[in-house]
Q: What sequence folds into this?
């Protein structure tokens, strides 16, 4: 099942709360985040997501001929500071540590911030990816967990 969102209706997307990222990549102006094994239930025991796997593609605006604008901010545990890293560095870290989706925020300029926890054996960081989306596509795969409208 494919769902498409624009800046006008992105507030209706699934937040992917508590879902663990199995792959994250960037190609041209598209950020792709894959979630697998979505056997996550709400407090009443009902599945949160319609299928077991989803790949979300965030098509971003280009601000110059080479790169879209995508900013990654990391908030280290127990430190009152933050730092910016390149998206490629986050991709590299996500292969060594667990990247778990927390929520998304939409600002007044229709920018989208994806919020994650990045957890390792001895480290825990909050990560925010800020981007200006044009189109967002959820590509759901696998066996349906329930009827989804």
A:
């Amino acid at each position: 099942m494919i769902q498409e969102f624009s800046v006008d209706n992105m507030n209706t997307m699934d937040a992917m709360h508590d879902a663990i990222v199995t792959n994250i990549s960037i190609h041209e102006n598209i950020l792709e985040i894959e979630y697998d094994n979505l056997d996550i239930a709400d407090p009443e025991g009902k599945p949160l997501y319609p299928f077991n796997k989803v790949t979300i593609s965030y098509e971003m605006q280009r601000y110059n001929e080479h790169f879209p604008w995508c900013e990654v901010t990391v908030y280290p545990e127990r430190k009152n500071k933050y730092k910016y890293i390149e998206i490629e560095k986050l991709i590299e870290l996500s292969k060594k540590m667990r990247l778990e989706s927390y929520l998304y925020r939409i600002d007044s300029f229709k920018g989208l911030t994806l919020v994650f926890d990045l957890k390792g054996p001895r480290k825990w960081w909050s990560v925010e990816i800020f981007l200006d989306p044009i189109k967002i596509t959820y590509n759901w795969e696998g066996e349906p967990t329930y009827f989804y409208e």
User: Anything to note?
Assistant: DSSP finds one helix and ten strands in the chain.
